[in-house]
Amino acid sequence: MRTQTAAPDVRARWGDGHGRPVHTGRRWRPLVRAAGRWSVLGAFAVFTALPFAWMLITAFKRNSDLYNPAHNPFWFNEPPTLEHLRYVFHNTMYAHWIANTAMVGVAVVILTLLLALPAGYSLSRFLGAWGGRLGISIFLVYLVPPTLLFIPLARVVSELGLQNTVWALIVVYPTITVPFATWLLMGFFKSIPRELEEQALVDGYSRLGAFLRVTLPLAVPGIVAVMIFSFTISAQEFVYALTFVTSTARKTVSVGVPADMVRGDIFDWGPLMASAFLASVPVAVLYYFVLDKFVSGFTTAGAIR
């Protein structure tokens, strides 16, 4: 006499090739987990890309299309135009703002590396446990809000006679970038085995030679992370740039666009979005080419702590 038993909520069948039961619910679990992950990733991608997509579309939209409430704001209802880009370069000092931003960013990157590389190396190699404590203390300086620091820094800029010049920003921005870069590089140098430097010393290199020829090439991901971090901080900073620079021709793009292209309560969205789009493209391209080294620099430094 054949009997048939089955749990009400689980169906089992035989036939996995090994004589073991395969439950229908278990087969669907990987698909459900994958669908959940892709749903979260898709929602996050749409959420983060939507402002950039609207900026890109608005930069090339005609005013008659942009300000018509009956038109779809997320697509071209009329042929695209370059009139906003022409306005940005012919009617504003956008080219000066971009040049100032590039100059300040490159100078800050160089100063940050000159100060943070020897500081991070010394803290990781020569001070033992105190190096870690000092590194954390230096990192805490990075957490002080710029709105509190700009008052004493204004005195420093005034004493140096750098008011209303881009050199004021070149002097001030390393106070933001150097503490974080030192903390980051310190963790990265800890990940490099000391034995490699000791072998270089045995081979006749000096301490500086071992650092330049052995340690520094292995620290490239951390150096790239510091360069990108310092440049992006310099390009997007607003408080110091608004406080220390007032002439239109000497402003950076982060202040020039909102301060000189918004007239009272009139927002010319086409030129504004064209300016923002042009300023964001180089940074996006830079991240695309060095993203692996950038992530590696942060993850390696964080894993050693």
How are helices and strands ordered from N to C?
Answer: EEHHHHHHHHHHHHHEEH
Please give the order of strands in the largest beta sheet.
1-2
In percent, how much strand structure appears in the residues? under 5%
Q: Mean pLDDT, nearest integer?
A: 82
Helix content: over 70%
- Kindly provide the radius of gyration, computed on alpha-carbon positions and rounded to a whole number of angstroms: 28 Å
Could you describe the largest sheet, including whether it forms a barrel? 2 strands, antiparallel
What's the β-strand tally? 4
Spans of at least 5 consecutive residues whose pLDDT stays below 50 are 1-12
> What distance separates the N and C termini?
68 Å
Structural class: mainly alpha
In short:
By secondary structure, this protein is mainly alpha-helical.
Structure description:
- The protein has 305 residues and is mainly alpha-helical.
- It contains 14 helices and four strands.
- It is globular, with a radius of gyration of 28 Å.
- The N terminus is likely disordered.
Keyword list:
about 300 residues, mainly alpha, two-stranded antiparallel ribbon, globular
Map the helices and strands.
Elements lengths: L11 E3 L6 E3 H36 L3 H4 L16 H9 L2 H32 L3 H14 L3 H14 L6 H7 L1 H17 L3 H9 L4 H12 L1 H17 L2 H6 L8 H8 L1 E2 L2 E2 L1 H36 L1
Antiparallel strand pairs: 1-2, 3-4
Helix pairs in contact: 1-14, 3-14, 4-5, 4-7, 4-8, 4-11, 4-13, 5-8, 8-11, 8-14, 9-10, 11-14
